[in-house]
Amino acid sequence: TKHQTRCTSQSLLMNSSIFVLLVRDIRKAQSTDKIVQMCLVKWAHYSIQLLFMNIFIILCILIFLLLSLKVINKKYEYFVFNSIFFLISIINIIKDNFTPDLIIYNSEYLSNNFLHFEPFFIILAYISKIFNFKFYFISTVYSILTFYFLYKSIKQLSVDLNLSLMLFYFIPGMYLNTFIQIRQMLAIVIVLYTVLLYITNDKKLQILLVLFSILVHYSALIFWIIFIILVNKKQKYHTLILLISSIATLFLSFFTRLDLFLFKLIKLILINFSLLNKYIFYLDQILNNNIEMVSGQYYKNLFFTLIGLFVGLIVLKSKNNNEIYIKLMTNLYLVGIIILNITMYIAPISRMFYYFGIFQIFLMPYAISKFKNKTLALTLKVFVITIYFIIFINGLNYTDTVGNHVFYNYSSYIF
């Protein structure tokens, strides 16, 4: 069959690749025993390396297998959640410098050219230099902290632990981004956890984490300014206004470039804040029309806007006045949609959306839980997972500036 032929060709390609690598190493051997020993060791080594080229698909398979345990018996929920969390976090922690951003970070670190980064990165770099560590130390610290705050957040608030974790894994700007924009992703999960602390009124720790998030990535400051403006609970129709605005901006952004006027205004504001001056470069590119909308961006915006519409309508329909935290997260998400739609033509700035977009890992499970019909809720959950999975597969095809498929080349500093 065609499937068998394809599998056979993939197997031949993998084995032939290993053979080529083996021949290269066998030339270095001096005896038959050494050749046999080298063949066994190297074959295992190169097999693991080639296997890791598809590590994200392998993770998907393992995740779905683990989730089947939960379907069989709900008592396995925490075991499944912790197992999946361990798998996706450890793969991130042991990553090599295989993405463009990590390669740049490593290069800047080796050349001592890292003082233009945020204070947290600089502190880690100096510590690493003192102990003569490689850049892996810095990337590992970022990974551990990122998944620590993510774990605490999901455990504390999610109504469906495994669905929230799966959404984080499948949304391309979340898990896959932890292999690229390590600084901003850490800031995003710190922001997420800090917002949850606001809900629980732990003010002292909240203030410390607000400062920490800014020291990790300056863009967090923009989120906190918006958060302070938005956190007014007295506005009865806040969610409705933001919902209408998110749909309106999607429509307007398709036909107009009103965003150019907005960015001129933002540039005038940023000039007065030396901390944010580096973002003026992005604005200058926009205003000079040097950046065009990324291919397929409108469909991405449409999808996230529809998610906001789905969640927003359910929140508006809910009569539970005790779910203030859900309304707050919904409003934050909708603000993110508005930012995403306005910055549709500007990929570097549209990354601000993920500070707000991460709340969907809580909002989607909440929205699905409001359906009392269990069959309908399960069908909706499977549908949502399928859609996000398709988006994830598309995200795996992300290419760098020279056309290389970044996530096809996963490697670990252990293997």
Describe the structure.
Helix content is 72%, strand content 0%. Helix 7 (136-157) packs parallel to helix 9. It is mainly α.
The general outline is globular
Spatial gap, N to C terminus: 35 Å
Largest sheet: none
- The pLDDT mean sits at 81
Kindly state the number of beta strands.
0
List the total number of helices.
20
Uncertain parts: 1-24, 49-53
In which range does the helix fraction lie? over 70%
Query: Nearest-angstrom radius of gyration?
Result: 23 Å
Which H/E pattern describes the elements? HHHHHHHHHHHHHHHHHHHH
* Main structural class: mainly alpha
Describe the structure concisely for a colleague.
This protein has 415 residues and is mostly helical. Helices cover 72% and strands 0% of the residues.
Notable traits:
single chain, mainly alpha, globular, disordered N terminus, 415 residues, 72% helix
Topology (SSEs and partners):
Elements: H1 2-26, H2 32-51, H3 55-72, H4 77-93, H5 100-110, H6 119-130, H7 136-157, H8 161-170, H9 182-199, H10 203-216, H11 220-230, H12 238-255, H13 259-270, H14 280-287, H15 297-317, H16 324-342, H17 347-350, H18 353-357, H19 360-369, H20 374-396
Helix pairs in contact: 1-2, 3-4, 4-7, 4-8, 7-9, 8-19, 8-20, 9-10, 12-15, 12-16, 13-14, 15-16, 15-19, 16-19
